[in-house]
Write a structure and sequence with these properties.
By secondary structure, the chain is mainly alpha-helical. Helix content is 72%, strand content 2%. It contains 15 helices and 2 strands. A two-stranded antiparallel ribbon has the order 1-2. The longest helix is centred in the middle third of the chain and has 37 residues. It starts with 8 loop residues before the first helix and ends with a helix.
Length: 394
């Protein structure tokens, strides 16, 4: 079985979150070097909430809990995605065979190349897409339909807490199909969108208004002067070092955290490495200013990086959409489906364009590229079948 335990700062943060939870039973409180601290950082509070609890309540080590959490999610996503495609292509053996081939290639790549929280976006995409399409094919009473969308929105929001923006591309896909669905009245479309927004706000509201105040109250009680800044993903650090992806003399020597740390050190020697707490905002504000300075004074650095990253993304798209690209040109899909897929692909490409187009960062892009190929081929297979059946009936 694959091990999802990757040593590094995120692993250290999980150990701290577990030690803090064992001592306090308060989620998101960490413990390190004999003192309590905020647990974790970035846009992934969900992993510092769920994994320590799994370890504590099931008597597991943190390594075992990590494997149970991520391994369980992979198995569940495989079961639900395969089941979804079986139901979606019921009595359509050629389309089902095509979907299984694409899923096999996709899951093989995902399990062998993608780790930890980077699994979230591709997993949630291949799970929800077939079930959403099944939902569009069935006729439900309004209250039942809205209840299903409420559950979908709630689940997507929890997923988003595990990996920030992991569901945004999928959400664009869903909302596009909802808005363009011909069987939905305008009133129903508005109700569905409203229900999704409301249900998605509930886990975030609980996190911000229950979990964080409880954690902060405990830490302030222990350390009155502690800085409880809530850190987000290090956007400007990532965006700045992303400009070193294509070789140039302005941002160098190569894509690495070292690039950002050295630039900040030049400007403020006291911030020699990425700060985890008190100087977090100051560190990233420096790199934000440096990023826009390059945009203004050396735009060619932006251009060569975008060009290089686009080329890499294009190769990934060719690999995972493969013959689906030819099929999409020969047999046009419904324009609502085409548009929904491209919105999801475009959003999930942003992290590759802004930061670096590595398999980990663009896992959501890879998922929707595979889904684009899958639905292009299944649609192409269906067209000749319809013509053959029509001719036979004559």
């Amino acid at each position: 079985m694959k091990s999802f335990v990757i040593k590094g700062c995120r692993y250290d943060f999980l150990v701290e979150a577990y030690e803090g939870y064992v001592r306090t039973k308060i989620p998101l409180v960490g413990f390190s070097d004999g003192k309590f601290i905020p647990a974790g950082w970035g846009g992934s509070p969900g992993i510092y909430y769920f994994i320590p609890k799994i370890a504590f309540y099931f008597g597991l080590t943190i390594d075992q809990a990590i494997n149970v959490f991520w391994g369980g999610l992979v198995v569940l996503s495989l079961v639900f995605s395969v089941t979804g495609f079986i139901i979606l292509f019921k009595n359509k053996l050629p389309q089902l065979a095509v979907s299984f081939v694409y899923l096999f290639i996709f899951y093989f790549y995902m399990i062998s190349k993608i780790t930890e929280e980077y699994l979230v976006s591709p997993m949630v995409s291949v799970v929800f897409v077939p079930w959403i399409l099944i939902l569009f094919k069935k006729d439900y009473k309004t209250y039942k339909l809205l209840s299903i969308y409420f559950i979908i929105g709630f689940m997507l929001s929890i997923t988003n807490l595990i990996r920030s923006h992991s569901v945004t591309g999928l959400l664009l896909f869903i909302l596009t199909l909802v808005i363009l669905h011909v069987k939905y009245t305008t009133k129903l479309k508005l109700l569905v969108c409203a229900v999704i927004v409301i249900s998605m706000s509930i886990p975030g509201f609980y996190y911000k208004n229950v979990l964080l105040p409880e954690k902060n109250a405990f830490l302030r009680d222990k350390f009155a002067a502690i800085d409880l800044i809530e850190m987000s993903q290090p956007l400007w650090h990532s965006a700045y070092i992303g400009l070193a992806y294509a070789e140039n003399d302005i941002v160098k020597p190569f894509y690495s955290d070292y690039v950002g740390e050295q630039k900040v050190k030049e400007i403020n020697p006291q911030l020699a490495e990425i700060p985890v707490h008190s100087a977090y905002k100051e560190y990233h504000e420096i790199l934000k200013k440096e990023f826009f300075k390059i945009v203004k004074n050396n735009p060619w650095v932006i251009i060569i990086n975008l060009g290089t990253k686009l080329a890499v993304l294009y190769i990934y798209f060719l690999v995972f959409a493969n013959i689906g690209i030819i099929a999409s040109l020969t047999y046009k899909k419904p324009w609502s489906m085409e548009l929904a897929l491209w919105f999801a692909i475009a959003f999930n490409s942003l992290v590759g364009l802004i930061i670096v187009p590595s398999g980990q960062y663009i896992s959501g892009f890879i998922a929707f590229s595979a889904l684009y190929g899958l639905f292009s081929v299944t649609h192409a297979v269906e067209k000749p079948q319809k013509r053959f059946n029509s001719g036979k009936n004559l």
